[in-house]
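Morning!

This is the sequence you dropped in the shared folder:
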Amino acid sequence: MNCQESIKQSMDMADMVCMSYLADMSESELMERPHSQCNHLNWQVGHLIASEHGMIEQIRPGTMPALPSGFAETYTKETASNDDPSAFVSKEELMSTYKAQRAGTLAVLAKTSEQEMEAKTGVDYAPTVGAMFVLQGSHWLMHCGQWVIVRRSLGKPVVI
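The structure's back. Tokens below.
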């Protein structure tokens, strides 16, 4: 197994876990917060999508599919406290945007050589191109731990 295959496998596992947690969540349930000082799930998912787009664009400019108009501006630190569902996109748009961005990430990953994985990014939390790719799965997993809290508080079944 090479570096790209290993990273893809890690991203695929994160995808399976995260999408399992989101699969049966309704629009209104995605507006739930695991705690009053945490962001609601819709915002978290939008943030993850916008972050993935931005991080991959940072290391490989011009390679990612465009985000829908206004998407990145909808999911900023300034919007995180907003509880109005109409200020955010639907679950359907979140999922379709996620799929497009993840497909873009995987396409860029497949074209990145082992040598290019070692290139420096200048980013403390992901100092190499390889680390930036690894972050795409782990970032989602960091957030989805909060989704379990919402699922349990709503009486949703255990899925993983």
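Headline: The CA atoms of residues 59 and 129 lie 7 Å apart.

More detail when I'm at my desk.
O.
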